[in-house]
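User: Can you predict the 3D structure of Opioid growth factor receptor like 1? Sequence below.
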Amino acid sequence: MGSLLSGVSFKEPTTVEDCDSTWETDSEPEAAEPRRQEGVCAAAGGGEEPPEPPAPRSGRPRSRCSAALAGPRSELTAKPKRSFYAARDLYKYRHQYPNFKDLRYQNDLCNLRFYKNKIPFKPDGVYIEEVLNKWKGDYEKLEHNHTYIQWLFPLREQGLNFYAKELTTYEIEEFKKTKEAIRRFLLAYKMMLEFFGIKLIDKTGNVARAANWQERFQHLNESQHNYLRITRILKSLGELGYESFKSPLVKFILQEALVEDTIPNIKQSALEYFVYTIRDRRERRKLLRFAQQHYTPSEHFIWGPPRRQKSEGSKASKKPASPVSIPNSHISKHKKPKEPKNTSASGSSAGKITEERKVEFTKNGEENDQDEQEVNCDAVRQNNSEKNSDTDTSQLSKSEEINDNSDRKEDASYSKKDDENMNNDCENVIFYTTLLQKTYNIEFP
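Assistant: Sure. Here are the predicted structure tokens for Opioid growth factor receptor like 1:
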């Protein structure tokens, strides 16, 4: 492709995201869920590098909804993946091949001289006029010969035919000034479109089905090496002054692949390669939005805008509060039960706890008159605290229905108070004694 520049400061992209700037400056809101048009048939997967080669399909290609009439067809279930190599290749093309030096006279203008009918293309030794006049309509020759395409559609990169020379910026400018070369270039473009079953209908680049579209679409759907040729043709159109011709052709291919279902195997290459030969990111967005509306299954469409990340503030507000280590006995004292004012449930659970405590008290038999005085003295205080606790619990129930976050805050504040109460063992005894008195009407001696 050229000589590498020494001491280049340009950083090579390392991910697909680095290579794809399609949605970089898009300030529009995220697109709604893509909708399928009524009566539009689904398209199967496929592409330039399919995981498995699709089985050839016999008979005439299916036009709009003909697949539905023929019966159900299985879809590829594997979600496609973006190819980094494809993204990097198209990135370099759209950015004029950074990191490579352009030598003005390195190819001696051989591409221009070929188009001026002064030299034949190598290695076949055939002139451009013979290709345009004798090869046109010879689909067998155009299909099986693999050396002419690099000469008909030259690029600033090396192809499979090493006899073909790369374009330079100087040669590109000279090519655009030569009417004879431009005329033949457009004839070569029309010849290849016809080979694919497409025809050029006006000077703005709009295309339509050719008369032989059914036969040629079936061939195009099964002969996937032609997808590489289409990518090269699109690149060459952009290099030689026909960038505006690319969008109509890509839109037509997407329509046939996704909506009409006539060339479904091309859809992967169309989305991974053809769309990204277009340098204007606004045009790429239009094509990708169109494809997203008709792509099936819709959840497998991976070429749309990246999902917007939630702000850090919203994440923090939804983050649950860190749990506080609280003993079970204190949770039962202040934590609001799941079913408010279910006294029977709370009484039974408290009864189990107090019954265990009662056994311990009777076993030890260590209660004395001083303990009785402390219990009787503090019983009133405990009853008051429980009344306050009931009031706080009802208030907490109301606040929890309004905002779950406030519930966590109040629980945390109660937890702090409970931790302070833990330091006083006497209050624990008072608490359980009071529960026993209230639940079982037990009077301690």
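Residues 369-402 form the longest helix (34 residues). The CA atoms of residues 50 and 268 lie 8 Å apart.
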